[in-house]
Design goal:
Order of helices and strands: HHHHEEEEEHHEHEH
Number of helices: 8
Shape: globular
Strand content: 15-25%
Largest sheet: 5 strands, mixed
Strand order of the largest sheet: 1-2-3-6-7
Number of strands: 7
Radius of gyration: 19 Å
């Protein structure tokens, strides 16, 4: 049972990107929490309608796209709660098809070493519909430390986060500067690096606006000397998938 055709979700992808460009994850998650409460209140109605339609057409209600998407997101959350490693999270995300609802998703894309560059391997490349930038995504564990305390109540970016940001920046610099390598990947996979942006997904939801402000500052600093960088917690990323996939 399929409800999304090619291009159907393009407006939602663009809308989420526009919102994220204007608002921190902290603000978006606050709004998302309210919307989630409304959605839970209407779940019983939606479930009843889906079940009736499925019965009429002789289809298993559990196979509906909405339920499959929610099951996939619940699986990812369960993996995060159990402390799953990056590769397990990456495999579950790719296998769920959530990131590929309206995009081409490439996993473990290698950049071969040259005289000028060491070898690198990008976790995910998401080639979106026309008019949306190509996303280079690095995934870290849910337990990945984002902030470290100097002493209450002062916090700073953790070394782990700084290393992850530097890693993504190297990917962006390589894609922008190594024309031959970029062309090789484009030809091999049939994609195009269009205004590439960097996305780091790591850690879990932070407690307050001050904590998210530090991430925003890190994004701005990293974006000054290369492709735009966005830092998502896993909770923020899964909430985005919920909104896009319904």
């Amino acid at each position: 049972m399929h409800i999304f055709g090619k291009g159907d979700l393009d407006p939602f992808l663009g809308m989420e990107r526009a919102i994220r460009a204007q608002c921190s994850e902290h603000v978006i998650m606050q709004v998302h929490d309210v919307c989630a409460q409304v959605a839970r209140a209407t779940d019983s109605v939606n479930d009843a309608v889906e079940s009736a339609l499925a019965e009429a057409f002789g289809v298993d209600p559990a196979s509906s796209p909405r339920r499959q998407h929610r099951k996939a997101i619940a699986t990812l959350r369960a993996l995060l709660d159990r402390g799953a490693k990056e590769r397990a999270l990456q495999d579950a995300l790719v296998e769920s098809g959530l990131a590929a609802l309206s995009c081409t998703v490439l996993q473990e894309v290698a950049m071969r070493p040259t005289d000028d560059y060491r070898g690198m391997r990008m976790d995910l490349i998401v080639d979106p519909p026309a008019d949306e930038p190509t996303q280079i995504i690095e995934l870290k564990r849910g337990s990945h430390l984002l902030l470290a305390r100097k002493g209450e109540p002062t916090a700073r970016l953790s070394r782990e986060l700084e290393k992850a940001v530097a890693q993504l920046k190297r990917y962006g610099q390589r894609v922008e500067s190594d024309v031959e390598m970029t062309a090789e990947i484009e030809q091999r996979f049939g994609i195009r690096f269009d205004r590439p942006e960097l996305r780091l997904i790591a850690g879990r939801r932070l407690p307050d606006a001050d904590a998210y402000h530090l991430l925003s500052v890190a994004e701005e600093n990293a974006s000054e000397s290369g492709p735009q960088l966005q830092i998502y917690t896993w909770d923020g990323f899964l909430a985005e998938l919920e909104r896009i996939a319904g």
